[in-house]
């Protein structure tokens, strides 16, 4: 039996059309792995925890730096020098104690990460380098887990959802087309709202997938331009020379 505080906490989203108690309960039963707790991961994890996702596994080896604070809103000045995952867990639990937060102070390729991915219903790739994204894509395909990947630099953001089905594309296909920016925040900078938009888009895809409310446009690359404030959608086909899905 759900307590009155449960209804009070989630009352506004329960008023959304086609979103009821059953959908909220599905969300609470779900487990999501968030790899990378920078700007993307902070925005996605903050929204998923607040909306009532049952379990979040946060994976990141880095510590908080002063330069992170304009766009990584789970951290404050008092957190500088501390492990991101520890600070993020404290902030997320403060917002919603009902959400279980598991933390792993590791990089994506660490051996401790694979069991986390195995028990997750969905993986969010919020990393900031191609090597990690390629590895995560290969693991998601191997473990038959859906994956939502995002990237942002300068005034551009990209988000795409991948499925593991045999004829579906993967991040390797996207990389083969050179369709995402190869530059980093360090070389080309980033505006906080741009990376937050991408992270929130990941969270919204996750909520739709976990609650089975709306079909997911698997393999559709969403490109956001912060200069014109416009979106572009491109369907990605499987690349014949992809190093991941053509193995």
Automatic annotation (TrEMBL):
GO MF annotations in UniProt: nucleotidyltransferase activity; sulfotransferase activity; thiosulfate-cyanide sulfurtransferase activity; ubiquitin-like modifier activating enzyme activity
Domain of life: Bacteria
One GO cellular component term noted in the UniProt record for this chain: cytosol
Alphabetized InterPro entries for the sequence: ThiF/MoeB/HesA (IPR045886), ThiF_NAD_FAD-bd (IPR000594), Ubiquitin-activating_enz (IPR035985)
Domain THIF-type NAD/FAD binding fold residue range list: 10-244
Pfam families the UniProt entry points to: ThiF
Family per record: Belongs to the HesA/MoeB/ThiF family.
Protein name: HesA/MoeB/ThiF family protein
Organism lineage: Bacteria, Pseudomonadati, Pseudomonadota, Gammaproteobacteria, Alteromonadales
């Amino acid at each position: 039996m759900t307590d009155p505080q449960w209804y009070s906490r989630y009352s506004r989203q329960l008023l959304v059309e086609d979103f009821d108690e059953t959908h909220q309960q599905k969300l609470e039963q779900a487990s999501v792995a968030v790899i990378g707790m920078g700007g993307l991961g902070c925005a996605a994890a903050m929204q998923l925890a607040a909306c009532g996702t049952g379990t979040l596994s946060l994976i990141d080896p880095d510590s908080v730096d002063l330069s992170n604070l304009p766009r990584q809103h789970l951290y404050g000045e008092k957190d500088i020098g501390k492990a991101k995952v520890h600070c993020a867990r404290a902030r997320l639990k403060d917002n919603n104690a009902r959400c279980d937060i598991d933390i792993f102070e590791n990089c994506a390729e660490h051996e401790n990460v694979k069991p986390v991915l195995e028990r997750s219903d969905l993986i969010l790739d919020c990393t900031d380098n191609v090597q990690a994204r390629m590895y995560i894509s290969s693991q998601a395909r191997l473990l038959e887990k859906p994956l939502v990947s995002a990237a942002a630099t300068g005034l551009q953001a990209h988000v795409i959802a991948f499925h593991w089905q045999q004829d579906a594309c993967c991040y390797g296909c996207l990389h083969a087309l050179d369709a995402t920016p190869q530059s980093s925040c360090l070389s080309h900078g980033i505006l906080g709202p741009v990376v937050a938009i991408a992270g929130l888009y990941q969270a919204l895809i996750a909520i739709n997938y976990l609650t089975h409310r709306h079909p997911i446009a698997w393999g559709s690359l969403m490109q956001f331009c912060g200069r014109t404030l416009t979106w572009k959608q491109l369907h990605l086909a499987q690349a014949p020379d992809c190093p991941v899905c053509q193995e």
